[in-house]
Design goal:
It contains 10 helices and 6 strands. The protein is mainly α.
Length: 254
């Protein structure tokens, strides 16, 4: 059954009141009832966002956090009807509306992105690796990558320092966020540029460590091969231990 024009108008007025708190002339409603109705809605949104972004909630002042929530509540046209999906839209809203500049917190975009990544990776659909075995030649066999990850570049190392301290360490940082296969715990790892190159070559091109070492030396033959190989073996052993590399891909074993 379609709404009548009168019902539709009343609904729009109520929605406007709930989102803005501004008098909208909702027919048949009492002022106190409307205030309680708006309070309940806003509290639900605020609770959902403060739980999704606990670090941002802690770092921002009460006034700054309330400003974020109120502007999001009033101005953002949500794409999802599910409150538990709103944190992603909140992250997009904060970034798109330059709150990092408004609040003079240069790290804010990276901080909300970092906090969102934990939610995204934790709730991502299951992705399954190709068949692999635990034993192999670390330099000459192709490694199987845990497919449940996100690799992200950040300007401020909010994953390494307290948020406000990260301002003093601006640079290029690469954050690997991944889900541990058995426990489903979300873990974080900072990668340097060389290890990012190595990781992406393994993940996207199915190259062995020695093939990647050959590629790196071809690009820069001033790097001693033995020193590079020793460094890479240490990196690979750590990645295997931390369940980023799961083992050796069966499809590429001799």
């Amino acid at each position: 059954m379609l709404y009548t024009d009168k019902t539709y108008d009343s609904q729009k007025r109520l929605t406007n009141w709930v989102r803005t708190g501004k008098e909208s002339g909702v027919p048949g409603a009492t002022s106190n009832g409307l205030k309680q109705y708006r309070r309940l809605f806003r509290n639900n949104i605020n609770n959902s966002l403060s739980q999704a972004y606990p670090i941002s909630f802690e770092v921002l002042s009460d006034e700054e956090w309330s400003t974020l929530v109120d502007e999001f509540f009033e101005k953002h046209d949500a794409k999802t009807p599910h409150i538990w999906k709103l944190p992603f839209e909140f992250y997009q809203f904060v970034k798109a509306n330059n709150f990092s500049e408004k609040f003079n917190y240069p790290f804010l975009n990276d901080l909300v992105h970092f906090e969102w990544l934990e939610i995204e990776v934790y709730t991502m659909p299951n992705e399954y690796p190709q068949p692999y075995v635990k034993s192999g030649d670390i330099l000459n066999n192709v490694l199987e990558v845990n497919p449940e990850y996100r690799l992200t570049q950040l300007e401020y190392p909010v994953h390494m320092y307290a948020a406000k301290e990260s301002v003093n360490h601006k640079g290029d940082y690469f954050l690997l966020t991944y889900r541990e296969p058995k426990t489903f715990d979300v873990k974080f790892m900072n990668l340097d540029p060389l290890h990012v190159l190595f990781f992406e070559k393994v993940a996207n091109e199915n190259l062995t460590a020695n093939q990647i070492i050959d590629f790196i030396i071809d690009q820069n033959n001033s790097i001693p091969r033995d020193k590079l190989t020793k460094s890479i073996i240490g990196f690979l052993e750590t990645m295997i231990k931390e369940k980023v590399f799961l083992g050796y891909a069966e499809n590429y074993l001799n």
